[in-house]
Amino acid sequence: MTSRLPSLGLLLLGVWAVLGLASGWLAGWDARLTDNWFRDPSRQLKLDDRVRLILIDDRSLEALKAPLTFWAPHFSRLTASLINAQVAAVGLDWLPYDLDPSLFSALKSDYPELQTTPGNPWLPLFEALQKHPDHPMVQGIYPPNMQSDAPAGMLDQYRPAAELMAMLEPAQMGFLNLSRDRDGVLRRQTVLPVQLQQPLWGASAYPPFAARLAEVALHQEMDLPNPRWLGQPLPLAGDGTVRIPFHPDLQKAPRYSFSDVLEWPENRVRQEFAGKVVLIGAGTKITQDLVQTPLGEVYGVQAHAHVVNALLTGQFIRDFTPAQAALCCLLLTLLGLYLGVVLSPWISLLLAVLSELLYYAALHTLFVQKCWLGPVLVPMLGLGLSWALGAALRARWKTQEERYVRQLFGRYVSPAVMEVLLKDPAQSALGAVGKRKITVLFSDINGFSGHCEKKTPEAIMTMLNAYFEHMNRIIFRHGGTIKQFVGDEIMAMYGAPLDHPKSEEAAVLSAVEMMRHLESLRAADPEENHGFYYIKVGIHCGDVILGNVGSHERTEYAAVGDDVNLGSRIMGLTKAFKADILISKEVYLKVSHLPGMSFVPKGAHPVKGRVEPIEIYQVVAEPATGEGTSS
To answer: What interhelical angle do 377-408 and 345-370 show, nearest 10?
Structure first.
C-alpha cells in the first residue's frame, strides 16, 4: 500500500486542482442552491418586533396627487410626527429633492394636499429636530460609487435636499448602496463605514444606512477597528460584508401606507410607533426600487429592514471559515477516494451517493438550526470525482497486481527471497512486513577507480561480473541474501528474509571466506589482469524494518533502519585502520568465540549519523588451510 501512496497523492492533488479551478464558478451555483434554504419555515431565527415599514405605495400615489418631486412637505411632516412620537429610530430610504420656491409656490395651488404647506416646507421637521436634539433620524444617501471626485452636477443628483442636509449632521446619514452578488442577488451587506477618497458633504466616511439605523435604535456604536457588535465579533467576509439572514416573517412585518400615516393624529402615531424602528421607503414597482434576494424580489426598504433586523437581534448567517471549508473538501475527497479504491464499484457508488445526500442534509440542518452556511457543491464534487478516479485506479491496480505476481519471481536474485515468497505469496505486496534483528555486510573493491582508469569499460564489466559471481556463491552458502549491487559495492543481509539464528557468525565467516577466496584467485593472477582481489568489509547487526520497496515496475527486498547505514559507515573506516574486515561491538560479542580468527579492538570512534562513538574491532583471519577457497 505504501508504494501506492504517490499515485493516491497525485490523484488527490489533481482533484484539488480541479476543485480549485471550479470553486469560483461553483460559488454562484452554490449560492443559488442554498437560496432555497432561506424559505424553510423551520429555520431558528430571531425577529425583532420593533421593525415597522411605512411604504410609498400605490395607495399613497393615488391619495397624494402631487408629483414625487414636490413631496418635501410630506416627508417633513411625517418624519417630524415620528420624531415627536419618540420612535427608537426613523430611517428615510428616499432622497427628497430641492424645491424651486417660485415654481413650488406657483404649482402648489393645483394640489389640495400642498395648499397648507408653510413657506418653508421643511419647517415641521426643523421644529421637531429643535425639540429633540438627540433625534433618532437617519437619512439615506447615495455617494456616487463611493467616490468623492465625481463632477459637481453628479453629486447634486445623489444628495438629499439642501435644506434637509443643513438640518442634519453627517452622523445622521448613511449610504443606501446595496452589495449585490455577481448574479444581482442581495445576500450580503456591508455594515462598516466606507472611507471616501475625499471629504463629501461634510464627512470623509459614511456608515451603511441600516447599520447606522441600528446604532441609533440601540444607542450603540460599532466597535472598530476589530468590528464587534453587541459584544460579539461580527462574522465579516473579506470584503467587510455580513450574510443577511432574511427572516421570512419579516416580509409580513407591520407595514403602513405613507398617505395613511400622514393623516393620522399625533396620539395614533405615538400609539403605533413609539419605541419602534421605522423605515420609510418605496413600496411600489413604479419607482423600480426592487432588489432580488433569496426570498425573492423585495423593495429596497425591505432589504434594509432585513439588515436592521439582523443587527437588532445580533443574528447573522455565518460562513464556514476557509479552514473549515477546506476540511470539508478534504474529508469528502478522502472518503470518495477510500470508497473508490477499497470497495467494489457498485457498493462504493451506492455509499458515495448516500454520503453526498447525508452531507447535503447535514449542511441544511446546520443552516436551519444554527445559521451556519457551509460549502455544498465543491466538497460534493470532490467526493464524486475522487470516487470515480479511485475506482478507475482500483481497476488499474488490480490488473497490475495480476501481472506483477506473474513477473515477480524473476525480479529477485536471492533464492532465499524466492523461497519465502513461494511459501507466503502475501509478502509480495509492497510495504513493510516486519521488524527483525539482522546482520548486514557491506563490501567494495579497493582501488576500483584506478582499475577503471587503466582498463577498458568492457574489461571492467567482465571482471566485475566475475567478482560478483564468486562473492555471491560465498554469501549464499552462508545463508545470506544479496540486497543490492551499487557500482562495486555489495550489500548482503543475514537473517532476512529467512530467520538465521547465528546471523553474526554467518556474516563474519562469509567475510573471512571472501578474503581467503580472493587471495587464492590472486595467486593465479598476480598482475591482476583478470579480476579484483582486494576488498574491504564492514559488518554490523541491529533492528531493521524489512519489506518489499519500490514500485510495481521494479521491486526490491529491503532493510530500512539506522543500523543498516551504520554497517556502511563501518566499512568506510577500514582505510583509516588499514584493515580488511571491521565489525561493531555488537557483532564482536556474538562471534568472539569463533576459531581460526582473532579480533583486535580499535577503540571507540565517531561515525556520521550517531551522537555516541561506536566501538570497532578488526577481524584477523589465520592463514587459509585449503578449505573454503574453491571457486
So the answer is: 160
